[in-house]
């Protein structure tokens, strides 16, 4: 059974077409992340699901009911907002209880549920405080508490961590993942942060320009991107893209470098392609090349240590590409190294369509 | 972003309709009514309601008393407004820095503004009394002999009296608004100007003035319009006299409508004033971006 | 308003500034003092030459006369008219402002039109309204003046409340909508509490405007709902022994305003500056 089903959803703002035909079905209990660059329509999509924006065309079904024209409060959803949306004139307890009071839940029941939610989030000692007396992380917990206390069918998160500092963001990410396991509820989560998307999602819907570019598990999208955009959006450091042509079962780069053609790709002889190489798939060469790998000599241009790893810029195919080595494998620019490129995990893209071959 | 879903689509109209209804009642209705009646020949003393064409409007142009009253209004405005502005600004500067008991002093200074203009007029009527009022008494101290000035009767003194009262009542309004505006000026800007060696006037001209200008122009607009419709203070002090010497546009309209009972002619004046002000004000509001 | 010095000044400058400030306060407060003083003076003191600067003893005879004659009832009329119209203006004005801010109802044109109504000269409006009220039989009735005061206060209320409502984060309202509130509940449970200080500041000024009105009351009241401002002018021009009445009536009409303003003072400075700054 699916908790959320979108069919042919469109959203126009005057002449601006923000959401251009989204079809999406989210199975019960799944954690789905809507990710994409700013302006891709992900927040608009979430707000349309919530009923805060009116759909221009298409339908929204929640829990099997068509709610396209229903009020937000009749959709059985709870939402966590980017800026927490806490009422400054109510204390933490009343903030969490707000939705239950609005729905006329009995006060003994409210008390039980508020306290349970507070315990779950570790904010039981803060119930008498006011939002202005809380830290950013605590406010975010209260905001999440206010959503989970509602026990809704569908939980919507709109970039909930983007106002927190890096350390806190990591902590809260773990917290949200744990809550999902405990509650087992369906979650739709919007973020522009690909790491949040990769770590939290059961499934990622990568949006671009009002459309879903690719839908799948995080590993699917990472390993088998459907388009150049997906390949470039996920992964850090970013994937390297090199212009090349296919000749006689080999990939020929601009500077004449020949690389083995990955197996099972229907590339036509003589076709121009874009070769996508993830920095993680370029390593310092070992004794001998594994099948499908290529080994080359190169001169290091730039070295950026990140702690456990080191990012290295090396010239290849007429441009400077990024590779990621283990720390201390390379230390200084100008160093001569042999690199090993895992061509079995390389991506070939048709430059005409930007689709992966 | 507008956030409104289908079932609540009419909610926004429910919210605004009572206000619109009431505003039409006092805004549009008088305008249309004045327009219609101004083309007729209605007075409250006769029952003639025949069509008069543009006769009433033609009369406007030949009504010397009307143009005189307009002149009086403008005269009061062009003297009182700059004085209120400059005095208010100077006072705001005076109170900008730390000053013991500032809160109390500011509260006391604001008192004239919150009392009724009619009470203000009445108060100054008592103050200006030629024999029992303290003003002549105080002037007498400086002059060295008793001064029996007839402030509300003497043609040479009525305007000073009116303008005095007006300035006394409304300078605190300017003062309070400009004090708030000056307090909001980013101090790092004026300090930067000082470090750059800017004198007070330069810093004021190029840093402070641009910062307070939006607020100041709103205050000028509000006070300017209030001065244009000045009625209460004059009614209390001179009632337009001596003769028609201090009759302003509001006083004249009142006299035409409620003393002379010239219904149609008053309607023509009212229409002219409303139409004129609507155009000027709408232009000013758009120009100043107030509706944004 | 912070007390951080704009320009560093020496102590002597402070003393000088203090002297000027004190002088200004004396000038601006003296007329009000004089009004109060007269209201407590005996006729002999009022008409003494040279003037007596303060009453020898506080006596309330001038006020007692107003109550005995029933003139003091006009203060009650003012109170009813000003408070009821303020209440209505606040209700209708706030929801209209909310509609303008949140849903951009009518676009910029409607907002401009509403603000421009704030600028209308009362006398130009009062004349047609008077003829209309004669026809309706509303002259000298509470309902007639309350409707007029309400309508005349609306542009101000809408203007001010727009500024306050714009400051409320949209998320708070959206969150309430999702949590189970309907539109009216959002207004009641989120918007009003968030705009609380703005509501108070605006209500005070609205009350003072209506309370201080003279022209509408002059034209539209006769005896039944005559306001204190009209009553004061009835003592003009008569014999000079009406001085005590002018003063006492004025003081009666001024004290409620002073009390209101003093009680809600902490909302006012913000109210004035906000209204001006936000436009």
Automatic annotation (TrEMBL), chain A:
Example GO molecular function: ATP binding
Transport keyword on record: yes
Stored InterPro entries: AAA+_ATPase, ABC_transporter-like_ATP-bd, ABC_transporter-like_CS, ABC_transpr_MalK-like, ABC_transpr_MalK/UgpC-like, Mo/tungstate-bd_C_term_dom, NA-bd_OB-fold, OB_MalK-like
Highest taxon in the source lineage: Bacteria
Keywords for the protein's UniProt record, in alphabetical order: ATP-binding, Nucleotide-binding, Transport
Ranges for domain ABC transporter: 4-234
Gene3D superfamilies documented for this protein: 2.40.50.100, Nucleic acid-binding proteins, P-loop containing nucleotide triphosphate hydrolases
Pfam families in alphabetical order: ABC_tran, OB_MalK
Family that this chain belongs to: Belongs to the ABC transporter superfamily.
Function (record text): Involved in beta-(1-->2)glucan export. Transmembrane domains (TMD) form a pore in the inner membrane and the ATP-binding domain (NBD) is responsible for energy generation.
PANTHER family given in the database record: BLL2173 PROTEIN, MALTODEXTRIN IMPORT ATP-BINDING PROTEIN MSMX
Record-linked NCBIfam families: PRK11650.1
Protein's name in the database: Sugar ABC transporter ATP-binding protein
Upper lineage: Bacteria, Pseudomonadati, Pseudomonadota, Alphaproteobacteria, Hyphomicrobiales
TrEMBL record, chain B:
Entries under Gene3D superfamilies matching the protein: MetI-like
Topology term for the membrane: Multi-pass membrane protein
Domain ABC transmembrane type-1: 70-282
Top-rank lineage group of the source organism: Bacteria
Compartments where found: Cell membrane
Bilayer-crossing regions: 12-40, 70-96, 108-127, 157-182, 203-222, 265-285
UniProt keyword annotations, A-Z: Cell membrane, Membrane, Transmembrane, Transmembrane helix, Transport
Family: Belongs to the binding-protein-dependent transport system permease family.
Protein's name in the database: Binding-protein-dependent transport systems inner membrane component
Organism of provenance: Bradyrhizobium iriomotense
From TrEMBL, chain C:
Compartments where found: Cell membrane
Membrane-topology annotation of the record: Multi-pass membrane protein
Entry annotated with the keyword Transmembrane helix: yes
Coiled coil region boundaries: none
Keywords recorded for this protein, A-Z: Cell membrane, Membrane, Sugar transport, Transmembrane, Transmembrane helix, Transport
Record InterPro entries: BP-dep_ABC_trans_perm, MetI-like, MetI-like_sf
Principal place of residence: membrane
UniProt superkingdom: Bacteria
Membrane-spanning segments: 15-36, 79-98, 119-136, 142-159, 199-222, 242-264
The ABC transmembrane type-1 domain, residue ranges: 75-264
One Pfam short name: BPD_transp_1
Family affiliation: Belongs to the binding-protein-dependent transport system permease family. MalFG subfamily.
PANTHER family tied to this protein: MALTOSE TRANSPORT SYSTEM PERMEASE-RELATED, MALTOSE_MALTODEXTRIN TRANSPORT SYSTEM PERMEASE PROTEIN MALG
The protein's role, per its UniProt record: Part of the ABC transporter complex MalEFGK involved in maltose/maltodextrin import. Probably responsible for the translocation of the substrate across the membrane.
Annotated protein name in UniProt: Maltose/maltodextrin transport system permease protein MalG
Organism encoding this protein: Bradyrhizobium iriomotense
